[in-house]
Amino acid sequence: MSWRTSEELGVWTRLTDATCFGTYAEFKEELRQAFEPPKNEFRSRAEFLDLQQGKHDVHAYAKRARYSVSNIVTNPIDEATKVVTFMKGLRDGPVKTYLFREYPSTLEAAITLAMQEEFSLRQAKLHVNVPRMARPVMRTGGPEPMDLSNATAAGHQQRNNSSVRCFRCGYTGHYARECTAAVYKAGADVAMPGIAAINNITHGASRRGAPYC
C-alpha cells in the first residue's frame, strides 16, 4: 500500500469521528491537502497571469479566468491585477478597446462588460447579414403609360422644319429626301400641285395673261 493511499484512508477514518474537525475551515484544509494536486495554487496563478482568449469566445475565456482565480486561495490576487490581466488577454478588437475605454474596477465588472459588448456586436452583424426580400412588382390591369420622349422629339423637329421648302413638290415642312410625291415629268397629264405652283411662278402667265419673259 502506497503512502498516498494510507494518507487517504487516514483522512476517511477521521471522518467517521464527529469531533475530528473543530471548524469548517479545518475540514476544508484537510480536504485540500488530501486531494488537491501538488502546488495547484501556484499553477493556477501562473495560468491566470498568462491567460489568453485565443479562438475562444468571451464566455469561455471568462469561465477559464474565474476558475483560475477560484483556485488561488492562500494569497489571492488583488482586483487591479485581475482586471488588467483579463483585459490584456482579450483578443484585439472592439471588445478589448471598449474595456480599456471603460476600465472597470473589478474582474466581475470587466467580464460583464465584455459579454455585453460581444452580444451587441453579434446582434449588429446578424441584422446586417439578413437578406432583404425584393419588393414585388405591382401589375395593374389598366393601360401602361406612354413614352412621350419620341413624340416630343418629333414635334420639336416638325416645328424646326416648318420653314423648309421641298424642291421636289414645292411644299414646305420637309426636305426633298423626305418627299413621297411622284416625280414630275414634262408632258405628263397630271402634275403635282407644288410643282405646278413652281412652274406657274417660273413660266406661267401673269394676272393679265401676259407671259413672263
From TrEMBL:
One of its GO terms (molecular function) is zinc ion binding. Residues 165-179 form the CCHC-type domain. InterPro entries: Retrotrans_gag_dom (IPR005162), RTL1-rel (IPR032567), Znf_CCHC (IPR001878), Znf_CCHC_sf (IPR036875). Keywords: Metal-binding, Zinc, Zinc-finger. It comes from the Eukaryota. SMART domains: ZnF_C2HC (SM00343). PANTHER family: LDOC1 RELATED (PTHR15503), TRANSPOSON TY3-I GAG POLYPROTEIN (PTHR15503:SF22). This is CCHC-type domain-containing protein. It comes from Phytophthora cactorum.
